[in-house]
Write a structure and sequence with these properties.
By secondary structure, this protein is of the alpha+beta class. It folds into two domains: 83 residues, ATP Synthase, domain 1, CATH 2.60.15.10; 48 residues, no CATH class. The chain has two helices and nine strands, in the order E-E-E-E-E-E-E-E-E-H-H. Strands 1, 2, 3, 4, 5, 6, 7, 8 and 9 form a nine-stranded mixed sheet that branches. Helix 1 runs antiparallel to helix 2. The longest helix is centred in the C-terminal third of the chain and has 28 residues. The chain is globular, with a radius of gyration of 16 Å. The chain starts with 6 loop residues before the first strand and ends with a helix.
Length: 142
């Protein structure tokens, strides 16, 4: 029988599985705002926006992941994050995120068509989310 004080979490992307294990709490950037999921949570299905997924493990540690969007499915004893892209927070390339942010800002200044602007805004959101996670990691380590 499953432990009633934990919930199984799977974080996967097209590249493969990023995390699989038990957690006491999961936080994710749902489309309407951040959600917190505890064991025995009511079933839920939501889109994800670019941002940080935090997994609090049984050992009391917190693992951070970046997702570039996707979906989250919650069942009482299972959380599945299906991410467009996903990285462990420690694997985020700060230089690449800064370069992507700069490219997106330049594309927005050029006043191109609506599709290009939408792509630039999406890229800007992903880069900003990655940089926010990097700043948070520095604060924790500092």
């Amino acid at each position: 029988m499953a432990d009633p004080h934990t919930i199984h979490v799977d974080i996967v992307s097209a590249e493969g599985e990023i995390f699989s294990g038990a957690a006491t709490m999961v936080f994710a950037p749902a489309s309407q705002g951040e959600i917190g999921v505890a064991p025995r949570h009511a079933p839920l299905l939501s889109m994800l926006k670019p941002g940080e997924v935090r997994v609090q493990t049984e050992e009391g540690t917190e693992q951070l992941f970046f997702v570039g969007g996707g979906a989250i499915e919650v069942q009482p004893q299972q959380v599945t994050v299906l991410a467009d892209t996903a990285l462990r927070a420690k694997d985020i390339d700060e230089a690449a995120a800064l370069a992507a942010k700069q490219r997106a800002e330049e594309a927005l200044k050029e006043r191109t068509d609506h599709i290009t602007q939408a792509e630039a805004l999406a890229e800007l959101a992903r880069a900003a989310a990655q940089l926010k996670i990097i700043a948070k990691l520095r604060k924790v380590r500092g």
